[in-house]
Prior knowledge:
- By secondary structure, this protein is an alpha+beta fold.
- It contains 1 helix and 3 strands.
- The chain has a 3-stranded antiparallel β-sheet, covered by helices on one side.
- A hairpin with a 6-residue loop joins β2 and β3.
- The chain is globular.
- The model has no long low-confidence stretch (mean pLDDT 88).
- The protein binds zinc ion.
Amino acid sequence: MVEETTRDDMTWYACEKCGLMFDDPDDAAQHEENCDAEDPSYLQ
Length: 44
Ligand SMILES: [Zn+2]
């Protein structure tokens, strides 16, 4: 599930698995589908 974040009047979409951010929700969703970060050990 892509996370939506607003910063500086821009909406960003972050991959819930690895935290990578996109400015396009479709890009984010597509990335997340293919994201293989199964162990996000660096997430705090
Ligand atoms: Zn990812």
